[in-house]
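New to this. Explain the following:
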Amino acid sequence: MNEEIRQLILQAQDGDTDAFHKLVAMHDHRIMALAYQLTKNKQDAEDLYQEVFMKAYKKLHQFQFRSEFYTWLYRITVNTAFNLKRKLSRFPTHEPDPAENRDPMDWIISEDTTDDERMEIIKAVRKSMEILPQQQRTVFILKHLQSLKIKDIASILNISEGTVKKYLFRAMEKLRMSLKEYQYAR
């Protein structure tokens, strides 16, 4: 663990709110991106983001330096997202407006793709990701959209590395089958 982060954690655990704000600033972009990828809705992502850092602040005294700080935050984010998803499943929600946010999947599309083709591909990928079971989708997001290592994903989700690899393999197989018409489009 980075010594600066370690010192900020220790200071924040001693009640230094400025140190906690610095920790938030160091991780807020990645947590917000993950929140959006998990919720697919700007408002829900913002709510999740706030909830994550509120929980982190309240539970910071429990952080024991057995993992990286961002791994601990990711675990809080994923668990909170699962809880939010259960809670929201009881209430109807609106679909996110594609113009409202930059799509986190823009990286998969080449620059020479037209806007219409780009939107079609993004819609297809989003729709395909919806067919994935929650655990497979979460592992896929953490690995391919958040660029986390297998061991970190295992730690965040509290599952074995082998289970992470199994979920990734199954997710990729389902996505390949669902998106096969786009594989040879170039």
